[in-house]
Amino acid sequence: MHTFGSSPLRAALAAVAGALAFSASVAADPVKIGYIGPLSGSLGLLGQGVRDGIEVYVQYINEQGGVNGRKIELIAEDDGYEPMRTVAAAKKLSEQDNVIALVGQTGTPNVAATIAYATERKMPIIAPYAFSHTLTSPVKRYVFTTLPEVRVQADVLCNYLVGPLKQTRIAAIYQNDDFGQDAVIGLDECMKKANLPLTKLPFDRGATNFSGVVAQAKQANAEDVVFLGIPRDAALVMKEASKMGWKPQFSGHNALGDPQTFTLAGAALVENAIAVAVMEPLDSKKPQVTEFIARQAKYLPKTSPTTYSMHGYNAARVFVEALKKVDGTPTGDKIVAALESIKGLDTGLMGPISFAPDQHAGGQSVAFMRAKDGKWGLVTEWVKAN
User: Could you tell me where the DSSP H helices lie in 64-177?
Assistant: First the structure.
């Protein structure tokens, strides 16, 4: 009887078996993605929420077997909303963890600080939680946004106010920084087209006294006060107007439509306010929203769904759609090409998402919400910016 013993044939078979095992392990290697955001500090709820949403979708996809036979691994880093820490985190994720992309990264200044390094490493930044046109205009090869820019939001909001709502006297109370100034540009351009005046009232970030700007808005006899800032400040503005016995229509960009506005201002003061929606409300009856909430309850039962986690979940969905289109081993440039081929992606959680080689701002549609009985509800369909 022939035996292999230590013969060359046995050695050859062992080598083949080893090679096959190595090949299988390579095929099974996960696709690593990174998240950078404020997981601690005053914006911790935002950063944790976005991270949680990404994790939920990643776990769901992995339970289905991954993408093209490979699981996805999420590695999250805390930057405390400090751009210097953001860059250090990006370097760690790329050089030590070998992530292929940054998904859902949070904060405009933080994303901006990362772009040069991400470009050098050919590491796409996909669907950041940021709203500035400077991230995609001019086009940055490795940056793809999904949230409608605040300038776009302000322009579409203005068209809604002066069009269907027929308002002619509008005052903007806005955060006097890059964010607020960017928003006011969109508002101002729309008002000029309508040949209507805009009362512009800036306030410093971190301000706690809004009596001056509210008094000026009242003196201007504004029918509508467009607020552009964080929910805490919106609540202070509403309370100040109430003290003065003044009840204008309040409206604002997507942050006004955060559920915490009710907690901070009280539902009575927020009643009938109008906010731009960039994502579906959490109490939307759309099946995709119900599905998202159910999946977060399944995979991260100790957390609560928020608009932030919905964004993270949606961001991961966009990444997965691109990954599905990649043949062979994924690379940053293959992901870029795949993203640029996405047209009219309807996740059911926001307006359609489309990219092109000359257009990396993928979200151009918003809807409008109105506050009623302590909840935000959509009152329009999704509207595409002009």
Answer: 83-95, 108-121, 150-162
CB 318 within 8 A of CB 127: yes
120: exposed, middle or buried (Cβ count in 10 Å: 0-12, 13-18, 19+)? exposed
Q: Is the pLDDT of residue 17 over 70?
A: no
In Å, what is the CA distance from 271 to each residue of 159, 229, 247? 22, 18, 11
Residue 331 in tokens: 């690379």
E strands, the chain, in order: 31-37, 72-78, 101-103, 125-126, 143-144, 170-175, 198-203, 224-228, 249-252, 274-277, 365-372, 375-378, 383-384
Report the chain's terminal Cα–Cα distance, integer Å: 82
Pairing of strands 224-228, 198-203: unpaired
Residue position matching structure tokens 């540009």:
185
Residue for token digits 């080689």?
357
Q: What is the pLDDT of residues 101-125, one digit of tens each?
A: 999 999 989 999 999 999 999 999 9
For residue 75 the two structure tokens come to 């590695």
Q: Is the pTM of this model over 0.90?
A: no
